[in-house]
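FORM 7B: Structural annotation worksheet

SECTION A. Query
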Amino acid sequence: MAAEELALSDITLEDLQEQHRQIAECVGVPGFLKLVKMFGGNGIYIPQMREVVKLKVYRMIQKEFDGTNIKVLSKKYGVSESTVYNVVREQLRTGTYRHPVIPGQMTIADLLGPVQNGL
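SECTION B. Predicted structure
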């Protein structure tokens, strides 16, 4: 084991087998050694970029959803309308999405005000 640690102390790309060099070139030799320590002997799956950003895109859709813009968000983020609907379903169910503000538009509170005051 001491020989292994001694060899690792100054390992370079040229010291690696050909099939390992591409990974080490991508993440650097120290990063490659971290992967070896963490996952050595196991197969690991490297996801496609769309899987890496999926949850972030879904959060952006939720943030921008205003109750009327499913088609717009579908185009903007390159997902289907049903995907946008599935992402915002809970917001639709609970009514927690942001309504678009239209200048001069009355709200339900404006309408209920006179009723609650007995007018």
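SECTION C. Observations
The CA atoms of residues 35 and 41 lie 10 Å apart. Residues 49-94 form a domain with the Arc Repressor Mutant, subunit A fold (CATH 1.10.10).

SECTION D. Sign-off
Analyst initials: ____
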